[in-house]
Amino acid sequence: xxxxxxxxxxxxxxxxxxxxxxxxxxxxxxxxxxxxxxxxxxxxxxxxxxxxxxxxxxxxxxxxxxxxxxxxxxxxxxxxxxxxxxxxxxxxxxxxxxxxxxxxxxxxxxxxxxxxxxxxxxxxxxxxxxxxxxxxxxxxxxxxxxxxxxxxxxxxxxxxxxxxxxxxxxxxxxxxxxxxxxxxxxxxxxxxxxxxxxxxxxxxxxxxxxxxxxxxxxxxxxxxxxxxxxxxxxxxxxxxxxxxxxxxxxxxxxxxxxxxxxxxxxxxxxxxxxxxxxxxxxxxxxxxxxxxxxxxxxxxxxxxxxxxxxxxxxxxxxxxxxxxxxxxxxxxxxxxxxxxxxxxxxxxxxxxxxxxxxxxxxxxxxxxxxxxxxxxxxxxxxxxxxxxxxxxxxxxxxxxxxxxxxxxxxxxxxxxxxxxxxxxxxxxxxxxx
Length: 433
Ligand code: SF4
Description:
Elements: E1 3-8, H1 12-27, E2 31-32, E3 41-46, H2 51-63, H3 65-70, E4 75-80, H4 88-93, E5 99-101, H5 107-117, E6 135-139, E7 141-142, H6 153-157, E8 161-162, H7 165-177, E9 182-186, H8 203-211, E10 218-222, H9 231-239, E11 246-248, H10 256-262, H11 268-281, E12 286-293, H12 300-313, E13 317-322, H13 330-334, H14 341-364, E14 370-379, E15 382-386, E16 392-395, E17 405-413, E18 418-422
Parallel strand pairs: 1-2, 1-3, 3-4, 4-5, 6-9, 9-10, 11-12, 12-13, 16-18
Antiparallel strand pairs: 7-8, 14-15, 14-17, 15-16, 17-18
Helix pairs in contact: 7-8, 8-9, 12-14
Residues 144, 146-148, 151, 153-154, 188-189, 225 line the site of iron/sulfur cluster.
């Protein structure tokens, strides 16, 4: 066993899981390779949230069949949300796959590799120990208890399980020692963090504890739920100096009947109220959201409520999806996917156009401004990083400044990113953006 290749699709949780697995394989002496055909171990980390993601995984599995049958000594593993509590059907369909692993369950592969390589893998799976990036993720809570009717996550990732504050602080300290400056605390619903722990600490308490870790510069969190985003969490964003002014608060649909059908647990008015509460306490906050169009029986009028909400709130970013039924969800059993595909696409296009206009206008206001950007890496000869508001900034002359917070004068904007050069005059404290 010498090399591994990990292919990942889907959410940031999947990316964080892959990073952890890669770190463990690195500790066992395997090296990463960029081509699956060259690897001794191939891992596909799957996602089933959307049909097209699942189709891509199936395509990869099928294309890797010859790889495995021609090289039976190599190891092929399927990981992530496609692997449910029972693997019988998958084992039948893909008999050439050696290992099936649910999200965060690395042991079956790690133990198999340990056996084949004649080493004890004990202690290999844990925080990232290889060379992590300047900005990385820390999963703080696994699973979700919400059971929104369209969502498969609670069935695949299980019920909420939080990691302790002590463990997360230790992990942050270790990451700082390895050069990490920016951490995103990750969960399907980070705002419900801690309710299952002794003393029931919440995300605000965790943010305060991580904020005290010396050497960490920026702290972000993802993803929130409107019902669990408490005043204590909002106050933590407002008052802790390293916690960045960015909130991703999915609303999914603007109409109350649709929201009820989705089992989201709030109304349009309550969502607007939550945004007002956040903006009042954190005036320079940037906002992102997740939206589904064309959910079961959604009428034109109901869609209009979604459109109006986006127009009124003016998010910095909208993650948009046209609804498709996921087998195993409550919606797949109780509701009908009645909205025709072309109507879903037209609604999606209307929101894409609206959001492009809004994001263009928001980002244009940053033209000629100087922003504090943490330089994360260099890609195609150009440095890039993010400011505290999670704006992606490409920097002309920042290649040698990876890992530093630099001042960047913005000279070009688009709806999706900013561009600039290192500024002569740094941003003054109090002018952070
Ligand atoms: S909150 Fe709803 S949409 Fe988000 S992971 Fe949980 S069940 Fe899925």
